[in-house]
Amino acid sequence: MLGAIFRARESGIVLALVVLVVVTVTQNPRFLSGQSIRDILLGTAILAVLAVGQSVVMITRNIDLSVGSVLGLSAFAVGSLLRGNPGLPVVVALLAGLAVGAVCGLVNGAVVRFGQVPALVVTLGTLYAFRGVSYFWAGGQQINADQLPGSFLGFGDSSVLGVPWLVLIAVVVMVVAGVVLRNYRGGRELYAMGSSPQAARLAGIKVGRNTTVAFLVSGALAGLAGVLFAARFGTIDAAAGTGYELNVVAAAVVGGVAVFGGSGSVWGASLGALLLTVIGSALAVLDINQFWQQAIVGALILLAIGADRLVAVRVTRSLKKRNSHV
Amino acid sequence: MSDTAAPSGGRPAWLSRLASWDAAVILVTVVVLLVASGAVDNFGTSRNYTFLLLDLLPIALIALPMTFIIVTGEIDLSVASTLGLTSAVMGSLWNTGMTIESIIPISIVLGAVLGAVNGFFVTVLKLPSLAVTIGTMALYRGLAFVVLGDGAVADFPRAYTSWVTGTLGGGPIPNVLVPLVVLALVFGVVLHATPIGRAVFAAGASEQAARFAGVRTGRLKFWLYVVCGAMSGLAGVLWTLRYSSARADNGFGMELAVVAAVLLGGVSIFGGKGTLPGVLAGVVLLAGLQNALRLQDVSNEALNIVTGVLLIVSVLLPNILSSARAALRRRRRRSPSPDPPSSDPGVLAGIEQ
After folding, report:
1. Which residues from chain A sit within 8 angstroms of residue B146, using beta carbons?
2. How far apart are CA B281 and CA B274, in angstroms?
3. What residues are paired with B167 via a beta bridge?
4. What is the per-residue pLDDT for A162?
5. DSSP conformational letter for B7
6. What one-character-per-residue DSSP string does B103-162 give?
7. A295 vs B125, B146, B307: nearest CB
C-alpha cells in the first residue's frame, strides 16, 4: 500500500523536500516555526488546486497555460462582487469563482476541441486575452482588504481543528480528483487519451467531449484558486496571479506528470506544488536572493523532464529485451 | 494530414492554399496600414512610421529563425527570456567598465550559447521542445534577475544609442532597418532556395521521411536553436540600445508576439508549411494593429486581448478553411468518376517519386 502510494517519482520529490527542509532548519531553526509552516501550507494550497487542474489537462496530452490569467480574472470578479454585496456568504463567492473559471475553461476547451488546434497555442492566446479582459475591467483600480467583507477575509485566515480552510479545500479537491482519476471510468479514459489518442478513439472513448471536460475542470479549479487567492491576500488588482502558469506547469512536471500525456497523478503534482513553495520560503529564510527562485523553477522543469526521459528510455529498452526473447 | 494529398499533376493542394493564405495576409496588412493611415490620427506621419518600424524590429529579428523552428515542427518559448538575459548581461558588463565594442559581440554569442542549450535538450536528449523551452524561459529570465536584480543600467554611449534610434538621412526609415532587411533576405533565400530550406520543410512534414531522405534532422534543429538564440541576443542588444536601458525584464512576454506573428503569417503550428514573406507580413500586421490601437489610447494591457485573439484566429482559420475545402472536394469527388484515393501525405509521395 505504501509502496503503491510513493512510487519512484513521488519518493524522489519527498527526498528532495526532506533534504531541503533539514538543510534550511540547520541554517535557521525559525523555518519550522508555526507561522512559517502556516504560510507554506497556505501558499501550497493555492498552487496545489491549480496543479490538480493542470494535471487533469496534461494527462490528456494537452496543456493549459491560461491558468494564471483565469486566477486573476476570477479573483477580481469575486472581489468586485463582494465589494458590491458585503452580505454574500463565502460559499457564494466560492461558487462564483468556480463559475468564472469554468466559463474560461469552456472557451479553451471548445476552441481546442472544435478548432482542432494545439492547446499550447490556444491557451497561450487566452493567457493574454483573459489577462487583457482583467486589465480592461479593472482599469488600474485595486480592491483592498478594507473593501472586502470581514467574513471573507476571516475565511482566508481561520481554520477548523487547526487546519486552515484553504488547506482543507485543497485537500478535498486533491482527494476527489485523485480518486476519480484513479478509480472511475471517466478518469481512466483521460489516461487512455493521453497514451494514445487514436487508440482511445478506436476504443470508443469520446475524446472530444473528455478534452472539453478536462479544460472545464482546469478552468474551474483556477477560478476556485482565484477565490482562495483573494481571501488570502485581500488585495487584488488586474495583475493578480501573473506568471503563476509557470509555477503550475513546473509543479505538475516536477511532480511526475508527463508533458506528453498518459501518466502522472494529482498527488505528485501537489507534492510538486509543496516543493516549489518550500523552495520559495527556504530562499527567504536562507537570505538568498529571491530572484533565484525563478531560475530554480526553470532548472527543476528541465531536470524533471530529463529524468522522465531517462525512465522512458529504460522502460523501452527493457521491453525490447523482453520481446527479443520471445 | 488530409489536405496534403496532391491532385494528380499540377501543384500540390497545400502549396496553392499556402500561396493564397500568404497573399491574403499581405493584402490584409496593406489594407490595415492604408485604413489606419487615413482613419487614425497621427498614424500616417513619418515619425510614427519610424516608431512602428523600431517597434517591430525585435519581433521581426526573432520571427525569422522562429519561422524555421516552427516549420520543423518544434517551438522556442524562451526567446524573450534570452533577450532579457542578454540585456541584463550587457548592463552588468557595462558596469564593470568593459567597452561596448566587446560587449555587443559577447552578448550575441551568449544568445547563441543559450540557444545551444535549448538545442542540446531538444536534439541530443530528445526532450519535447515545448517543455524544454518553458523550462529555459523560466531559467533564463530568473538568471537575468540574478545577474542584474530589478535595477536598470542606462548610461550606454550616445553614439550607439542614437544610431539605433536614428534614421537614414533624417528620413522616416530607421538605420536599424538596414541590417533587418539584409537578414530577412538571407533567411528568405536560405528557407526558399537552398537545400537547407528544403531540409527544414522535409523535417517538419515528416521527420522520418526526411531522415530516410538523408536529412540529419537532429543536427539541423540544433543549429536552428543556436541561430534563434543568437538572433534573440541581437534583438536584446538593439532593444537595450534603443531604450538605453538594460533591464532583466526587457522583452517580457514577447514570445507571444513572435509566435503570434509567425502563425499569423501562415506557418503551420504542425510544421512543414509556411513562407517568410507571409511571416514578415504577419509581423507588420501585428505591429501595425497595435500601433494604431495605441494611438487610439487603447492601453497596452488591453492590446494583449488583440494579440491573443489574433493568435487563436490565425491557427483556427487555416483549419476551418482546409476542412471546408476538404468537404467541398469530397462532395465533388462523389459525383463524377473519382481519382484513386491517395492516402499518402504529399511530401512522402514526392520523395518516393
Report:
1. 289, 291-292, 295
2. 12
3. B174
4. 77
5. P
6. HHHHHHHHHHHHHHHHHIIIIIS---HHHHHHHHHHHHHHHHHHHHTT-EE----HHHHH
7. B146
C-alpha span between B229 and A282 (Å, rounded): 33
Residue B345 DSSP SS3: coil
Question: Could you count the other beta carbons within 10 Å of the beta carbon of residue A184?
Answer: 10
Could you give the C-alpha distances from A178 to A55, A249, B336, in angstroms and in order? 10, 18, 55
Q: What percent of chain B has pLDDT over 90?
A: 59
Asked if residues B266 and B21 have their Cβ atoms less than 8 Å apart, the reply is yes
What is the number of other CB atoms lying within 10 angstroms of the CB of residue B277? 16
Residues from A in contact with B at Cβ < 8 Å: 63, 111, 115-118, 120-122, 124-133, 135-136, 139, 238, 246, 249-250, 253, 259-260, 289, 291-302, 305-306, 309
Chain B residues whose CB is inside 8 A of the A250 CB are 135, 138
CB contact under 8 A, A136 and B302: yes
Kindly report the pTM of this predicted structure. Answer: 0.86
Task: Work out the pLDDT band at B348, boundaries 50, 70, 90.
Answer: very low
Query: pLDDT-based confidence at B270, cuts 50/70/90?
Result: confident
User: In whole angstroms, how far apart are CA A113 and each of A208, A215, A241, B232?
Assistant: 6, 10, 26, 33
How is residue B174 written as a grid cell? 530607421
* Cβ distance of B137 and A131 shorter than 8 Å: no
- pLDDT, tens digit only, all 326 positions of chain A: 455 544 556 778 888 899 999 989 998 888 888 888 888 999 999 999 999 999 999 999 999 999 999 999 999 999 999 988 888 888 999 999 999 999 999 999 999 998 888 898 899 899 989 998 998 888 778 898 889 888 888 888 788 787 888 999 999 999 999 999 999 998 899 999 998 888 999 998 999 999 999 999 999 999 999 999 999 998 898 888 888 888 999 999 988 888 888 888 999 999 999 999 999 889 888 888 888 888 998 998 898 888 878 877 887 788 777 766 65
CB neighbour burial string for A225-237, b if at least 16 within 10 angstroms, e if fewer:
bbbbbbbbebebb
Q: Do A128 and B253 touch (CB under 8 A)?
A: yes
3-class DSSP state for residue A159?
strand
Quote the ipTM score. 0.85
CB contact (8 A) between residue B130 and residue A250: no
The DSSP call for residue B4 is: G
- Judging contacts by C-beta atoms under 8 Å, the chain A residues touching residue B302 are 132, 135-136
Interchain proximity A299–B139, CB inside 8 Å: yes
pLDDT of B281 reads 95
Cell 494535471 belongs to residue? A55
Spell out where A97-138 has E strands. Answer: none
Give the position of cell 503550428. B269
What is the C-alpha separation between B132 and B126, in angstroms, rounded?
10
User: Could you tell me the CA-to-CA distances from A145 to A90, A92, A231 in Å, in that order?
Assistant: 15, 18, 9
Tracing cell 536584446 back to the chain, one arrives at B236
